[in-house]
Design goal:
The structure holds 2 protein chains of 2 kinds. Chain A is 29% helix and 22% strand. By secondary structure, chain A is of the alpha+beta class. In chain A, the strands form 3 sheets. Chain A has a 3-stranded antiparallel β-sheet, with no helix packed on it. The longest helix of chain A is centred in the N-terminal third of the chain and has 32 residues, at 3-34. Chain B is 63% helix and 2% strand. In chain B, helix 3 packs antiparallel against helix 5, helix 5 (81-108) packs antiparallel against helix 6 and helix 11 (283-291) crosses helix 14. The chains are: A alpha+beta, B mainly alpha. Bound molecules: protoporphyrin IX containing FE and FE2/S2 (inorganic) cluster. Protoporphyrin IX containing FE binds at residues 46, 49-50, 53-54, 56-57, 60, 71, 85, 88-89, 92, 95, 130, 133-134, 137-138, 140-141, 189-190, 193, 196, 259 of chain B.
């Protein structure tokens, strides 16, 4: 065999061995990397049930869901009106109030500021009658929409369902 | 007897040679000033951190339900636990003071220039490791600042396009900062200082290959060096004495001066403190992060990039600085830029300490404007240093022929 051929063959073998080795290392790393993702028991806490019958009109409670705070606000007629009237306002993240609630009197929000994750304060603390995030001054309205401040998006509405009139189930059971 | 024993060992592993060539008789420029003390001071603090950290870890519990109480247990019940904790918590502060001076020394005397580039880069790697370690250590007491500091900083990753949100969940091990986060941060906080120690070893290896720079910034012939021992051993020990006086004054008389009162409130994932501030040593970088707020939905990512870039840009210094002269002592323009940069960084720190929507001069000047200007000047330093040296705008003074 010519010397050149031997070298080509050797280069190829080196490359092939290296490639197989790299795939092997990546495969071996996978379980280690995956071990950092949420574990089965964390995923199992996918839903939270809340009894909303005792929340008076205009009042809100904060409940933990997956370790995160969720606001459940029983909106007054005034708050609903305020939210709906703002539908046409100049919104940084446009959304209709109707699309953010299932029943107009219940506003359910993930209470995590879309800026850097602080918990906004209760209803009525911000301009527009809504929630003020104290960290860097973001104002959300009575529909949880961002109106002013550095936050880019509206407060997220988590997946939720009403079971009967008084029970609210937040989250989706893990498949 | 002991002499022959040492000979027996040396024939098998040449310890004496190593000590002689790398320590006692290691040739060192004779003109080093006190700014050259800070390397040995950093090593001293690192050793104190590892020692106190190890003993804290013997009483600390990395569990969201137990962590806060275990730190209070260390403070109140463990014999001298208060001392271990205050040494460790204030040690982090003094570690950063010492390292910042050490870095600025390198910038002023051109220690990043050839042939010390790798030495300089290793230093930046060490600094990144240090920041990671300190950040995760601050999470461990699981107070309000621990929790919300961790939340805000980890949330920054969500700015990364496509993978950001999944990456954050991966780091948390859940859907918010929680027990899995605390547990892994503890393990990493335990591990990283030893990685850092390894990096320091390589840093010193590189140093001993190219030897110390000096205030004059010229290469030093052997006749102008003195043996490390006893000249610099005694000087370094003296420096350690001065450091300990200052550091221990805080530990004993004002142990909470650098700590946040809010961190004595247990972590509450349902409520954010009114004003979140990072530890003082992160403030300038935090200010840079917050100053980029004028790019709409791109702001968050840009802020994160600017923050990372504000340190990463140090890697480029060896290429940006084109002056024929190393030491700023003989470079009038560079020297002025350096001091502007230094003061600018202090201003950034002050901006980072204040709430984002604060104003000065009775509302005439918003803090954010100061922050943006200071960020601009921060990066401007690197551009200008390049410009004045690459285009021969700076005329260096005459450099002495010998030290
Ligand atoms: C590069 C060196 C290190 C730095 C910069 C550092 C930094 C910190 C900081 C800032 C805290 C929070 C202090 C407080 O507010 O209470 C902390 C806590 C802690 N560190 Fe470290 N650390 C270092 C090395 C180590 C090592 C090597 C260990 C263990 C082997 C360790 C174990 C701990 C423990 C158990 C705590 C929780 C107790 C407490 O909060 O005081 N540290 N560290
Ligand atoms: S986290 Fe809410 S404004 Fe920054």
């Amino acid at each position: 065999m010519a010397m050149e051929q031997v070298e080509n063959r050797r280069d190829f073998l080196m490359l092939a061995t290296g490639a197989v080795g790299a795939v092997g290392v990546a495969g071996a790393a996978w379980p280690f990397i995956q071990s950092w993702n949420p574990s089965a028991d964390v995923l199992a806490q996918a839903t939270t049930e809340v009894d909303v019958s005792s929340i008076a009109e205009g009042q809100m409670i904060t409940v933990p869901w997956q370790g995160k705070p969720v606001f459940v606000l029983h909106r007054s007629a005034e708050q609903i009106k305020q939210a709906q009237e703002s539908d046409g306002a100049d919104l940084p993240d446009p959304a209709k109030d109707n699309d953010r609630v299932q029943k107009p009197e219940w506003l359910v929000l993930l209470a995590i500021c879309t800026h850097l994750g602080c918990v906004p304060q209760g209803v009525g603390t911000g301009e527009f009658g809504g929630f003020l995030c104290p960290c860097h001054g973001s104002h959300y309205d009575t529909s949880g929409r961002i109106r002013k401040g550095p936050a880019p998006n509206n407060l997220e509405v988590p997946h939720y369902e009403f079971k009967g009139d008084s029970t609210l189930v937040i989250g989706k059971a893990a498949a | 007897m002991s002499k022959s024993l040492m000979e027996w060992v040396d024939e098998r592993i040449p310890v004496s040679d190593l000590i002689k060539s790398q320590a006692t008789e290691y040739p060192t420029p004779k003109n080093l000033n006190y700014w050259w003390n800070f390397g040995s001071l950093a090593l001293t603090v690192l050793i104190i951190m590892i020692l106190t950290g190890l003993f804290l870890a013997m009483h600390y519990k990395p569990d969201a339900a137990l962590a806060f109480d275990s730190v209070e247990h260390i403070m109140r019940d463990v014999n001298y636990g208060w001392l271990l904790r205050y040494l460790h918590a204030n040690g982090a502060t003094f570690f950063f003071i010492v390292i910042y001076i050490h870095i600025l020394r390198g910038m002023y005397y051109g220690s990043y220039r050839a042939p010390r580039e790798i030495l300089w880069w290793l230093g930046i790697v060490i600094f990144f490791l240090m920041m990671g370690t300190a950040f995760m250590g601050y999470v461990l007491p699981w107070g309000q600042m621990s929790y919300w500091g961790a939340a805000v900083i980890t949330n920054l990753m969500s700015a990364i396009p496509l993978v950001g949100p999944d990456l954050v969940t991966w780091i948390w091990g859940g859907f918010a900062v929680g027990d899995p986060t605390l547990n892994r941060f503890f393990v990493l906080h335990f591990l990283l200082p030893f990685v850092l120690f390894g990096a320091v070893f390589v840093h010193l290896w590189a140093l001993h290959a190219v030897h110390s720079n000096n205030p004059v910034g010229i290469d030093v012939p052997h006749k102008d060096t003195i043996p490390f021992h006893p000249y610099y051993t005694i000087k370094d020990v003296y420096g350690v004495g001065v450091l300990l006086i200052v550091y221990l004054s805080f530990v004993f008389y004002a142990p909470n001066f650098f700590l946040e009162p809010d961190n004595y409130i247990p972590a509450n994932p349902m409520q954010t403190p009114a004003h979140i501030v990072p530890e003082w040593y992160f403030l300038p970088f935090y200010a840079i992060l917050r100053s980029i707020d004028f790019l709409g939905s791109f702001s968050k990512l840009a802020g994160v990039l600017a923050m990372g870039g504000s340190i990463a840009i140090w890697f480029l210094l060896p290429f940006l600085d084109r002056s024929p002269v190393r030491s700023f002592r003989y470079r009038p323009l560079s020297r002025r830029l350096f001091w502007i940069f230094f003061i600018d960084t202090l201003i950034l720190g002050w901006v980072g300490y204040n709430p984002a929507d604060a104003t000065v001069l009775d509302g005439a000047l918003p803090m954010i404007t100061i922050g943006r200007t200071a960020t601009f000047i921060y990066f401007g330093y690197f551009v200008l240093l390049w410009a004045i040296t690459a285009f021969g705008i700076e005329k260096p003074n005459e450099v002495p022929k010998s030290i």
